Amino acid sequence: MDAINLADAKAHLSELVDRVEAGDSIDITRRGKPVARLTAAARPRMRIDAALLRSLTATMPPAAQSAADLVRLMRDSDRY
């Protein structure tokens, strides 16, 4: 978490808002003491249409291998 004084916060507000949107949290100080905190607002979660999801997955072909086998294959075939 970063801290910025009030005068700098006023001068760079749009940049601070961009940083907060990206996940940062910023304290605003006055005379060296924290007085406010900028954090991202909670966004409402989108509802999932279960019927639409079922119709989509019903048209998908079955997987040729299990997810565990696929992950093992990917892990073993790549170099670190």
Word description of this protein:
By secondary structure, the chain is of the alpha+beta class. Helix content is 44%, strand content 19%. The protein has a three-stranded mixed beta sheet. It is elongated, with a radius of gyration of 23 Å. The mean pLDDT is 91.
Task: Sum this structure up briefly.
The chain is an alpha+beta fold and 80 residues long. The chain has four helices and three strands.
Percent of residues in β-strands? 15-25%
Low-confidence stretches: none
Residues in helix, %: 40-55%
Number of helices: 4
Structural class, from secondary structure content? alpha+beta
Distance between the termini: 32 Å
The helix/strand order is EHHEEHH
Outline type: elongated
Biggest beta sheet summary: 3 strands, mixed
Q: For the largest beta sheet, what order do the strands appear in spatially?
A: 1-2-3
On the 0 to 100 scale, the average pLDDT is 91
Number of strands: 3
Rg, Cα atoms, Å: 23 Å
Draw up the topology in text.
Blueprint: E1 2-5, H1 6-11, H2 13-21, E2 26-30, E3 33-38, H3 50-58, H4 67-77
Parallel strand pairs: 1-2
Antiparallel strand pairs: 2-3
Distinctive features:
alpha+beta, 80 residues, 3-stranded mixed beta sheet, single chain
